[in-house]
Amino acid sequence: MSDCSRTRDDVFTLFQFQIGDELQQTITFYDRWALTYNQDTTLINYRAIHHAVDFLNNHFSGNREEVQVLDVACGSGLAAELMVKLGFRLFVGVDGSKGMLEQAAQTGLYQDLKLALLGPEPLPAPPDTFDVVIMVGALDDGFAPVSVVRELCNAAKPDTRRIWRESCS
Ligand SMILES: C[S@@+](CC[C@H](N)C(=O)[O-])C[C@H]1O[C@@H](n2cnc3c(N)ncnc32)[C@H](O)[C@@H]1O
Asked: Quick one: average pLDDT of 52-72?
């Protein structure tokens, strides 16, 4: 999956036929896609992460330099790359794909990156700790189950606002 001459249609086809209902299949897909994920998602104009970060930017009023951000299913680290431009500094990332975590590590923006298969494994995050918990593009069949939302809430500090927003483009 490292062909630079891929078209937008090639990327859609790739996604459509290689993602199934099995989590392990999904993770294998992302491990293989990791190297060209950023390039390919730009090609298909993937905007979900931009929508989520824009929404956060418009609603967050704390001290951005000090708050702890937990980026669940962080993938290649696009959330941190966008959020750092808005003043956020402290990021912990979690993902089930080693290949994607390696890309996230290359951004140099995460204080910590953890490998975990959410659903079968617990979210590796201490309770009542994070000011911002963000998860984009990973709650679906063959991805993370909805029960993970409870774990996201547990990882957030008790007095934080819970904002749930679905976006799929
Ligand atoms: C569409 S990508 C989204 C990545 C990033 N949040 C973004 O918006 O660019 C989905 C990510 O979720 C991860 N993922 C899917 N299911 C997961 C699970 N059950 N546990 C951990 N990671 C998972 C994949 O490895 C992949 O990195």
From this structure: 94
